[in-house]
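Entry 14. Two folds queued back to back today. First construct below, sequence then structure tokens.
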Amino acid sequence: MAQDISATNLATNWAADGQQVTFTVEMDWARSDSWTDETAYVLNVQCATSIYDRALGLPALGETSPSRATIRLKNDTNRFSPDKGTIAAIADGIYRVPVRVSAGYVDGTNGAETLRQFTGEIEAAKEVETVGGKVVVCECVDAGVALLQYKYTTEMYTDQRADQFLDTLCTAASITSTSLERGFIEIPYCWTDTENLWSEFVKVAAAEGGLLFFGKDGTLNFWRLTHLLEAADSTTSQATLDRGNAYYLDDTISWRDAYTGVNVEWIPREVGALSVLYQAHEPIAVRPGETVEHDALFQYPATSVEALTAGTDYQAVSAGMADLSADLAVSTTAYAQRATLEFTNNNATHTIYILDLQVRGYPLEAEEAQSIQRDTTLTPVKVPGTKVYPVTGNNYLQTLGQAHLLAGYLRDRLQYPRRLIQWEGPACPWLEPGDRVRIDNADAGISAQYCYVLHMTQSMSANGYRQSLLCLPVDNVFAHTDYFRLGTSAWADSGSHKVGY
């Protein structure tokens, strides 16, 4: 959503001639929420924020990648050099240092007015020396950088909406700034097992046609499928982009993103009968007074795990095969696809050998994959031949209801060849992906074309502040412009809003 505009200069004078650029770049070198203003050393900044992957195209709208920024710093004084610099915290290099960038304009009436444009961490930094001087180039990634590296294992959760399971994962990853819209459909079974958390976040959102990304201020946003029809910044134009304030305009029709149909695969799951999930292949030795941890990897994910029972799930014996089960304390920490078993030997003299160890539980069994297809509703068909877009490989697609929702939504989006309009000009600091803008250019045949902002690239320096926007016209992105809303819409014999997908 667009950032709030608190002053007149940003809202009305952003495209005026002679606007003076103002921006701030801050680093938290000690990673202690103690920010240092490094703007005086900044040569230029480029940052990109997106809800669109140019490589994957419109079918994958919502399968976003983290936002990135490149910051070039003057280093003639070696301030940012690990071996010669004056910043003690970077003696071992600049890595995972928090960074934030704000930018805007300044004039004699309102003074400096800025809005946050990027929040993230430095992923890599390199020193460059040329005839023009010494420079440090910082490559930065938004708050999703931690999720790209973080792998997490959960217990099995049942009947979770997308926002509920995302909230669980956010807590695990210590993400505290979130804006998660209520999802539409409950996912019967949710879990992760040492998976990359960013990919899991995206899959959960995509399972119901939603969208997930970190905003400019570092907030994790989950937008449900109908967000662009509901949010004020997506239903009301946030800026008018016309020929007078444009440096460049590119209007193309993307045929590669047009399909005759969509095929969505889903995998039903059900709880199986009590069975053995894990068997140890070797004995486990626990010395007197010792505690041993054992990691049991299950053959299948499990909805629940039985407590280990001596004589059934293991034998605890001495070297002479005497029963020492009374001297063995056993605890189990169960997850969806593994368990951590802890054995403590309370016998003061004998080593306990654990034989025939097994873990029993109720497995979550996957049935044969099923699919549904939704073909174009257009006559004549816009795309020659047969071209079907497949949706596969999402473990969170488990019900026919999910498949129906996603197939209908994607079919409506992909059955048209879409226009993509790229506009470049002075930066509108308040714009964010998902915002609605109006594009006018009579010479290019564009009049009052309302669009969603999919991708934005900004560049800022003392010489100027400009922006490139990739925009998708709003026409036909959804089959209808109004859908029935509980608590808002009213039943009528005719003219009622559509129920949805």
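Second construct, same run, same settings:
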Amino acid sequence: MTTKLMYPAVFHSEINGGYSVDFPDLLGCVTEGDTLSEAIDMAEDALGIYLYSLKKDREPYPEPSNPTDSKVEGRDFVVLIEYDEMAYVRMK
């Protein structure tokens, strides 16, 4: 069975032009990138590492929240990041 999940990630536009990213549903799951494309790639990787670690530890995945419930300010925005367990396992 393939597990595909979508988690909202909040992208914070930094003064230096880069982006920091956090996942409201996943405590401590944060990353960053110098460009939007890099930040999205890093967010996908951070989500994969976080959820794969939970699975290895036999911990349940947190329920993804509704992206409209994410609080954003200023130039922040929400992007849904997909976790495809089978694709992630093949990459490892």
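Quick look at the second one. The chain has a mean pLDDT of 92. Residues 2 and 87 are 9 Å apart (CA to CA).
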